[in-house]
# Entry
Amino acid sequence: MLELVDLVAGYRTRQGLFGRRGEIRAVAGVNLTVAAGETVCLVGESGCGKSTVARAVVNLIRPFEGEIRFDGRSLVGMSRDQRREVQLVFQDPYASLNPRMTVRELITEAWRIHPGVVARDQWDAEVASLLERVGLNPAHASRYPHQFSGGQRQRICIARALSVRPRLIVLDEAVSALDVSIQAQILALLRKLRDELGVAYLFITHDLGVVRHFADRVAVMHLGTIVETGDTEQIYRSPAHPYTQALLSAAPSVDDWRDQGGEEIVLTGDVPSPLHPPTGCRFRTRCWKADERCRTEEPALEPHGTDHPVACHYASVLSPRS
Ligand code: ADP
Ligand code: MG
# Structure
């Protein structure tokens, strides 16, 4: 349903003495698909370009290169009404809900923008049914965002995304700001909605602990590129990229790595800037396996004796840290 093909995206800057124009290529050639009804998780540390992918997919920024296709058609240049089937939910429900609007207004706003989704005489009934669907009291439709808790506000954001009947919801750190117990409740809600409505998710997070029992597939992102991708089980049971191994070893709630006798891997060195990425492998400056080949030759994302694609010359499942 959704296809990212060699996507390059980011920001233009003007810097230096002469106002020279620069390009921050925060996303540097990403290929990724999400099938109908599928949950794909994009994980990686802060600053690796996850939100830039999200912004490109919902057309908030225009790709520098590459393609974003939805049902085989380019998303760039589609009308707002055509893009309705792809919705975005952000991390921060405080920032994404206008404090002066009631829940009812927040939800019906989308129907003004996309007339034809819900007939006007159905609005009240539809608001009530949406609130019920996301676990909120329909009688609270006249309340304002500040009258709800953080978790409830995220439910409002989800109801709002659902209101235009999307087939894909991009969730950008949608549970990251919430307490662990509330996170679990929102994830349970997302699971329920997926089962009931068949909606697909592109679930973006820096926290590998969250996705273990939620995603069908995982793509691990590092400095603008995908370094490893596979079924969730493959990524957690047999991570083959040193970066994935480091992420998993450092996630307190993920037991798979420790079950296999892996130690915690502490990455040293600064995260390189997307303005000046390392030559060859973009992870090599922080990688304990890196050698001359990694400096000169960028590894392709393909199976390296593994059952799933990994972008590493020295990918290995069996011997963590050797
Ligand atoms: P993530 O969501 O994974 O934390 P982002 O996609 O937000 O990462 O950012 C990727 C890179 O792009 C970072 O280096 C960040 O500093 C840079 N960046 C993000 N937003 C902007 C912007 N509006 N202007 C310039 N650079 C940006
Ligand atoms: Mg982000």
